[in-house]
Protein 1
Amino acid sequence: MMGVVLTVTAVALALAAAGAIIRIARGPSLLDRVLAADVLLAILGAALCIDMAVNRHLNNLMLVVAVSVIGFIGSVTVARFVADRREQPSEP
Amino acid sequence: MNPEPNLVDAVIDAVSAVFMVVGALMSLAAAIGLLRFPDLMSRMHAATKPQVLGLFLLLASVGLQLRTWWVWPVLLVAWIFQLLTVPVSAHMVGRAGYRTKHLHKELLSKDELEAVVQKAAKAARESEADDGGNRTA
């Protein structure tokens, strides 16, 4: 049963990663790309969790937490800089 | 203690398998939402599914598969950390998206931020007008 689950989740996560990468490539604005990169990191964390669950180990847990930290810091930083850069030209 | 340990094992395996499949489908739903939705705000709505519910389901399946009690607090800490950071980053991205006008106003059912923005702009204009009046007088 675990083999079937692994196949189904691998296919779903691969399609999801492809969709997120398409949105990163196509995204009209920088914020869309940041959001899609955040989703891509969430998909990576999901893959690490499924690896842990199927193979019954905990080696990746710190990596999952680190991935979520990277997503948080990255999106907050980019959102901050977008707000600063787009505000400058509109000011008289 | 357990009359049928094999049955319990099978049930736990089935529950964790369902959690894993549903958690992976959350990621797929987020990707489909990213591709199909029209603007940044609705894409943000889709993007939070794997970050909160998907991670919860997958961490729960890890805990069920390991079959020990001491991993649950560790997994709970990882999930609560994600719960604390996701709203902050979503707030920052949404705020930057509103300020840079990456949204379709006609799709919003209620825009509570607009009144605040207009009030702040009016106050700024009035203070500027006062400064100009003082300078000319």
Protein 2
Amino acid sequence: MSAARRSLALHGGLIALLFALQFVLPDYHHGNLARIMVLASYAVGYNILFGYTGLLSLGHALFFAAGMYGMGLTIQHLGFTPAPALVAGLVTGIVVSAGLALLALRTSGVAFMIVTLMFAQAGYLTILYFGEYTRGDEGFVIQQAERVLWGIDLSDPTNRYFAALILFAICLMTCLHLVQRPFGKTLVAVRENEERVRMLGYDTFAHKLGAMIVSGTISAAAGAVYGLLFGYVGASFASVQYSIFPLLWVLLGGAGTVLGPFIGTLFMFYLIDFSSGITTAYMLIAGVALVVLTLFAPQGLTGELRRRLWRWLP
Amino acid sequence: MTENSSTRTTTSRRGAIRTLAGAAAGAATMPLWARYTHAQSAEPIRIGFQVHRTGIGAAYGRWYDRTTQAAVKLINEGGGINGRPVEIVAEDDGTDPKRGAEVVEKFANQHGCDIGFGTLFSHVVIGSAPRAGELKLPYFVVSEGHHVASGMLNRYTLQPGITDVKSQVQAMAPYVTQNLGKKVTMVFPDFAFGHDHRDFFTEAVKREGGEVLAHIAIPPAETSFTKYFPKIPRETEVLYHVMVGPAVLTFVKELGEFFGPQRPEMFGFIDSLEAVAMDSPGLEYLDGTYFWEGMPRHVQADQSDHDKFYRDAVGVDDRGASVSDPTDISTYAHMFGCWETLHVVKEAMETAGYAGPGDRAALVEAVEAMTDMPHSRAHPQGAKVFNGKTHQVFGHQYISRVEDGRLVKVHTTSIEDTYYPDEVDYTTRAL
Amino acid sequence: MDFGPYILLASLEGAVTAAVLALTAVGLSLVFGVMRVVNIAHGEFFMLGAVIAWWVAQSMGGHPAVGFAAALVIAPLAVAAIAVAADMTILKRLDYDPERTIVATIGLLYIIQQVTLMTYGPDARPVEAPFDTRLAIPWIERGEGGWQLYWPWGLGTTSYKLAVIGAAGAVLIGVWLLMSRTRIGLVMRATQMDRDMALAFAIPVEKVYALVFGLGAGLAALGAVLIVPIQQAHYLMGADPLLLSFIVVIIGGLGSLPGTVLAAVFIGLSDGIISVFFSPTLAKILATLLVGMVLVFRPQGLFGSRAA
């Protein structure tokens, strides 16, 4: 089997497995997995910019929140139904990521980190500043009646799970498709040596711009879907913490791997959930686990897998 | 540390349950349950306690935990609920709405809790409530937010143990305008909680014939405040302040440094100094200023037996500090809500003949049917009236004046002062 | 308040912020510059400094100045020791790989926060200032009888705040002397410029790294001890100093000590002065965007000479 086939089988297999799990998982884990798939989609988006293009952003919460608020505010104040509201979230994501990209891509390295961080902070404060519409940090509820998409009630656990799975499948396959095409290969080349890629005649700025818009839009999609599925829109999702999370998930799972974001999100979610069942000092366990992981799995979980077993892993 | 010890009991109790469920021997082998005679009723009532153990709410969470443990101990000593013991299943929500919603799912789907309970911070309540509603898990919040009564939540979310900010704020306006001055400047945090203060107080002051000269909204997570104070107009007669978060002491101190010897009258919400000692360095200037208190922190001359009983049970001394550590100040103006809510739950479960999760809807209806709650051991803060339509309780508010570092009660509002027209009727929504 | 006095007050407040920020940021700048790693736990070292200061001040008793003086010595040393231990047990074994260091220091952040929460608790606790007199500041104004002096309402500062500015200045001069005039400073600068060359010249790079990491954390802790009588020690207080000092280091131009200090002054003052003209949250938004735009148009920082 060729590498491309094998990877298609693997990723398709993951989606099939997630589909099958729906029928066997107990309620609690069923709900968790729905959450994890949406968050993993966010991490997939982050990974395109960070893992494949080599640009470390500290401002992705801005995109996640752009999607979430683009969706939520149009439902809340303009009376949109979920489908157009999701589109509104996506469009907001595209606009915000393109806008930020045009400014931030003038920089690279640490300056890029700070520029993205600062704009995300400004975005967070803007949500608070317009508290009249956004209800600031408290946020607002999207009522159950407003969460019916084409007659499907998204607050129902099964529907929610499928919606999350569809989002995740789209994001995962987009990412897989992207990295196997010349566009994605060029991004990796930019990550490895931007100067050389430019010398070869590629427009590296256009490639980075494309990567950032795709990354931001996927993040926004995740944000919009998260708000819709769980019925809440709040400013805490725009805070720095939510910019650090996808970085952490991706690094844990393995930067620059298609599966890594999912593995990292899953791992971190259950690390917190499991350790908080054992002790109230769960952050201690989580902290030690992170330190140990960096010591013994330097390229993240999937990265280790690729290094030791499956060298073909995309 | 107290926090650890209380945790240990929770965990070991949880472990004990697992053993219990697994062992065929059943209830009789366990001394703790031995006093509950009926075999099938030995199964405890499980209350999922959503607690802010970490994050910015941790100082409150610790005291919410202690108050809850004390109330449960009392209820269990009195025979539990419907003859069944009460068990608290505590989960940390990190004072984060996302984790809060996950914790609610955990209560309903993993721990098999009968109800969820105890959330304070509004954003966590609003983030969690939709899930509680979908899971049909009665969710008793102790938050003082206006979210429940505003109608944005759902049939399963109730606030029967503490009044909301709208009530509190509007009940203060007559006293402030009549006794302190009519020209008010407000300083508050620039998020929803602060905006509620801004909107409801401004409106109430207008009704009383006063006026608010300026609104000064402080950005969240700010650590230095002096630079904003010059925005306070010179002709201000009363400075109204409320602040939350770890920087509250800095805020109040810098306010004092700013005014120096020429301060206007000051009226604050005790939130600005909750869990902070009144004799902290730099607070001397507060003598002669006024505070709203949900429940007087310092023992008053007319202390009721109920307050005394409650204080002893939770382990709080005359100045509102832990009896074991006088530097550990309680969140006395808020935490009574946990105690009272648990007693409301007990009463409602007994009225509804609550037997298990199948009776959750009946439990909600039983709470909705409640009205008068007399001043008693179950309600040590004072008498209350519950509004079943808005799922919100109303009660007396207290105003204290600082005298030699003591908070001395100078005014008690009537319950009627806290009323406002209903904004929602949850009873018309599906159960 | 009138415009003039307001600007003066906002500048004074900004200067206090800038002073503490400069210490913290110079610490981060050393670590970032010499070791090329982003230490996410830097803010936690700051927090530890404040918490240890509370502990020391609490256990000393007597006049507040005694406890504070002891804290000024003990807290930075203790924090530096913790940092050196973290460097030798964790960072060294990661080979100072930038990405792995980020994850490891996030882990370290969780550990430090949780341990502090379990031992010190969730409360914000004050440390009493060694001296703290309110100083009213006069202002001149042209009245009917010509220029006259008056004391505007609310215009004042405290003796302690002025002392913080002075102390931070003195420490910064000390750091500058250390870096430019001593052998150890020379070794650090050599390691910063070219690690391999430094190794070739038999500089014990690992020891230098441990020293730099300890020094950086110690400076953050020192900044915290200075601020803790104004603000309080709290287990979550590290987030702001981390972000701000990170920003300051980049704005100042990576590896430039004077640049870092100037950037701290720039950030501290702009935060204060912008707040004069706009409502508080809007001022924060504008100050944040200003920093972002500065980097968009000068990616190497205000005072950096090469691309970062």
Protein 3
Amino acid sequence: MNLRPDPTFHASPKLAMQAPVENYAFTVMLSPDGNQSDGIAVVDLKPTSKTYGQIVHQVIVPNKGDEFHHFGWNACSSSLSPLTGHAFLERRYLIVPGIRSSRIYVIDVKDPLKAHIHKTIEPEELFAKTGYSRPHTIHCGPEGIYVSCLGGAGKDGTDGPPGIFIMDCETFEIIGQYEMDRGKQDKHYDFWWNLPQDYMVSSEWGLPPQFENGVVPEDLLSNKYGHSIHFWDLRARKNIQTIDFGENYQMALEIRPAHDPTKSYGFCGVVVDTTNLQGAIFTWWRDEDGKWQAKKTITIDPRPEDPENLPPLLQGFGAVPPLVTDIDLSLDDKYLYVACWGMGEMHQYDVSDPMNPVLAGKVEVGGIARGAKHPNGKDFAYGPQMVEISRDGKRVYWTNSLYSTWDDQFYPDDEGGQMVMARVGDDGGFELDKDFYVNFPKGLRSHQIRLEGGDCSTDSFCYPSV
Amino acid sequence: MISDVTSVAALWGAVILSGFYHGINPGMGWPLAVSAALMERRHAAMPWVLAMLATGHFLAMVGILLPLSLMLFLVDWEVQIRVGAGLLVIVMGVYLLVNRRHPKILARVHPARLALWSFLAAMAHGAGLMLVPIYLGICAIGDEETGHLAARTLMGSNIMTAFGVAAIHTLAMTFAGGLIAITIYIWLGLKFLSKTWFNLDLVWAISLIVVGVFGIHSARFSH
């Protein structure tokens, strides 16, 4: 407990943009086959440092087979909420779940170069206290730390629906299930919210048997992955509306609400439209009557390709689907970055008008049947995947692995973990920085990135940018 | 008699000072006034928000003081009541000192329910209890002055005092909290929100203990 709020807590998105820039990144290192232990890499981002762009510390966990994926902070700008006032917490711990093992590590990163495990929550405790498994997205909010889980109870995670549980933000004790009325929600992936407006939005990937051993083509072609998003009364813990995008919009993944809390809209990325292999972004918003609406505002076409260049999974289609697997919105709500993991492209859309996004920039690196090189001449395995934007919006970082078994299906010949960075122009557009290229230790892949002091997919703000 | 007048003035002064004190505590809602006014995007929202917060706080004060004023009907037990009340305040202070966790109930309140939030926040922090020894002190002196009036009259005057203490305290609280909220809202900007936000939890808990000790002390030496 501090006597003053943590200096990395910002009242508004605008204040967060003006704050000092990030010095370190924390990036997931995962062993795709469980031969090594997973860990968190601490990457030096200080341009003046001798070790700039290098992994300067690693927290390697004692277990194997956890498969790290997403993770998040114990506390963020939401601590300045005038209602709950946890203002004196420290942004100090990373909550890192193993998506395969259901084990959760709490890592103390107060001194990034001496980051270490603070607490471990064993899977049995998670199962017993929540009835959920496969913990994934982390957000800190009014009642503590919220963790979405992709699996329900039982060995396959299919005994009962998956959902969100709450953890105490000081002791990291699991409190229990979040939902009081989940309505139609029976799958889970991402979630985020608007705290002053008291709503939450959640999304759907698929149930564990649909992703753990790779994508199941029959399930995909018969539209059995998630294609709905759910709107919740956040504090009443109640599903108030479900919007079905249409069953062909398979895998509605990342939820990115506008950061400015006076706005009532956001975006959701859809991996693939099974009718035409397009990637899609939906804009969702609340209309004048208080009803939630959603409309497809971005489509990205697949690229035709000679079947012999394609992995077996895609040969029947003769095309490379974009595979929109991650999206991220800059803190000024201006640019939406869209990772097209299949095509090997990162797109930048100007979403100043959220109903009419305009493509403002594009970077090509990696990609199925393309393998575009990084500007420094080196290979980039797979394609652009987890993307994170600096608070000031000037640097965009991304890594390359989607999920171990899926990497192997879509990119059977690739291996490796990389993290790269692009610089954003003053009037939009962005280009890869040829001097920033982090190659991960052999046998480890990379996934989500968190920036020291917060980034564009962690902090929730309680005051508008004025 | 003169010393009684001075004590009464001092006690009413304490009512006002405690109001200022509660007002500057972020836990009593001034950041909520800033946030709500900004979210509404109009200046007129601020007075309304402050009024809602004041209503909740006032009700919390009355909710604590009124039952006590009814108990004072038992004039013969006055000292015991004052000592007991003082002990209760100390216990709350010690509890807040030991349990430094945030009241979870506040996290479930809808952001637009400002008066409810303010009421629960005041209750959870023992804000009303802080006034109890002061209020009982005022009543005790008042009772001595009125002498042996009918119990009914005495009770009526104690009830009036309870409302008076709650109202003046709430006005002072709203003034102090409103001043900070409006200054940040109009002049200083949101940057000062986190700069003006101090952790008063420890000081607050100690204040309760001090006020409780004062209450017991004054009860034992006033007769």
